[in-house]
Design a protein that fits this description.
The complex is a heterodimer of chains A (269) and B (193). Chain A has 269 residues and is mostly helical. Chain A is 66% helix and 3% strand. Chain B is built from seven helices and five strands, in the order H-H-H-H-H-E-E-E-E-E-H-H. In chain B, strand 4 and strand 5 form a beta hairpin. In chain B, helix 1 packs antiparallel against helix 2, helix 3 packs across helix 5 and helix 5 packs parallel to helix 7. The longest helix of chain B is centred in the N-terminal third of the chain and has 45 residues. The chains are: A mainly alpha (269), B alpha+beta (193).
């Protein structure tokens, strides 16, 4: 058993190293960005991206979406809200670190206050007590932090990437995901205490929660577009740029598509 | 000389006042466009009309409040310049129908949402007004919607920072590059018809 765990661990570290190399190669091209048409995302890897997009879509269609649909329509609304609050609460430490990195200490302080209040009075984050006390939730990831400090406009996150399982991204946000993963105090704690299954459980719950909230928005884009890949690429790029520009303003509805802040859009629910 | 200076000052102030008043009026008008449209849409969805009736009402609403020619031209991007007048007309007609069909579908499941109008500000290039609003939902977080209004009509909608016009342009551009403009028009006609 221990041997298997060690094997998986070494495999994972190799995967992570490989990913880092790919990302490094991708980011070095960051400065040389030039899109063919103004406002269009830069996508030099379109062919492999479309391939990965097709694979992700199949997995989504067969597994993720059915689970999310079942969850959304069969699980009572208060439970869904509680789950969503717990996911948000576990993400607060990473948000706080990023707010510090973005030069927003007062917002970081509020995020930490939210975390402490909700973890205790809110019973491990199930109830968002802090919101009732006038501290609305925020969400910041390291992709946004890079975007805040980068000289490039927030629409330019380097080459667009479709990541395996994680979906739409770009060089900037992929590096951000990796950094957020590495600095995540919750992950470090679960590793230290040898309770890594908690991390996997959290990832699973996060995915279902996020997908159930983006059902309607993504269905709308898919149904009303002629080239779903291009429409989603544009929507993702715009959403991330808006999140970076909105730094400081409370986000009314920053809703995750995958592990961290991803788009939600749409009209009626 | 003093009289002349006073005259210049008066003129400048009068001009500034007029401009400010005009800007204020434009802002108010833009907000009213959105407000009026929201109440019209609400009235339409609340009646519980049949699908075809609702689509007919939506068509009227859409034509009265959206500058479809401007939207269509923006959405087609650089392909607009290469299109013949006939292709342009066909594209606008097909695009309008497809958009109306899409909007009718969206409002099908109305569940008590309301639109709260917020701040109005001029767009970065000054050619239009941006009306901020929030779509309040009975459950879940409010959705941030910004309406771009030019000459009393909607020319773009941004939902949570995502411009529908820009998304559509990426979408259509990719389709035209792969299949050509005529194929795009055919596909839109098929979807709207």
């Amino acid at each position: 058993m221990a041997q298997q765990v060690a094997m998986i661990r070494s495999f994972l570290s190799r995967v992570r190293f490989g990913l880092a190399v790919v990302l490094l190669a991708a980011t070095t091209g960051l400065g040389a960005c030039a899109s063919q048409e103004p406002g269009e995302p830069w996508d030099p890897l379109e062919v492999p991206n479309r391939f990965m997009f097709a694979i992700n879509r199949t997995i989504d269609m067969l597994i993720v979406r059915p689970v999310a649909v079942t969850y959304k329509f069969w699980v009572p609304e208060p439970i869904q809200r509680g789950v969503s609050n717990v996911v948000q609460n576990l993400g607060e430490p990473v948000t706080a670190i990023n707010e510090v990195a973005q030069g927003e200490p007062s917002r970081a302080a509020q995020t930490i206050a939210r975390f402490l209040v909700n973890t205790t009075i809110g019973i491990l984050g199930i109830f968002d007590v802090a919101k009732e006390l006038g501290m609305p939730p925020t969400k910041e990831d390291f992709g946004q932090t890079i975007g805040v400090w980068a000289k490039a406009p927030p629409e330019d996150g380097g080459p667009y990437l479709v990541l395996p399982l994680l979906g739409p991204s770009n060089a900037r946000d992929a590096v951000g995901l990796l950094v957020d993963y590495v600095i995540d105090p919750f992950r470090i704690l679960t590793w230290q205490l040898d309770v890594e299954y908690l991390m996997y459980a959290r990832t699973g719950v996060t995915v279902v929660d996020a997908r159930s909230r983006t059902l309607q928005a993504l269905d709308d884009i898919e149904k009303n577009s002629l080239d779903y890949y291009s429409a989603l690429r544009s929507a993702y790029t715009q959403k991330r740029a808006a999140d970076i520009r909105q730094k400081g303003a409370p986000q009314s509805a920053s809703i995750a598509l995958v592990a961290s802040g991803r788009p939600e859009l749409g009209f009626a629910r | 000389m003093a009289t002349f200076r006073r005259w210049v000052v008066t003129c400048v102030m009068a001009t500034a006042a007029t401009l400010l008043a005009a800007a204020g009026a434009a802002a108010q008008d833009a907000a009213q466009v959105v407000e009026r449209m929201a109440s019209q849409v609400l009235a339409t969805v609340k009646t519980g009309a049949s699908d075809s009736e609702r689509e007919q009402q939506m068509t009227q609403l859409f034509r009265a409040n959206f500058d479809i020619a401007a939207i269509g031209q923006m959405v087609l991007g650089r392909h607009w310049n290469g299109a013949t007048p006939d292709q342009r007309d066909k594209f606008i007609a097909a695009f309008e129908k497809a958009e109306i069909r899409a909007y009718s579908g969206r409002f099908k499941n109305y569940q008590g949402q309301t639109l709260k109008i917020g701040r109005v500000s001029p767009s970065p290039n000054g050619a239009s007004e941006m009306v901020e609003s929030q779509l309040l939902q009975p459950t879940g977080q409010p959705i941030r919607i910004v309406w771009e209004i030019s000459r009393g009509k909607v020319i773009d909608i941004a939902v949570e920072g995502v411009s529908m016009g820009m998304t559509r342009r990426s979408d259509f551009s990719a389709y035209v590059q792969r299949n050509g403009l005529d194929a795009l028009i055919d596909e839109l006609q098929r979807r709207g018809g």
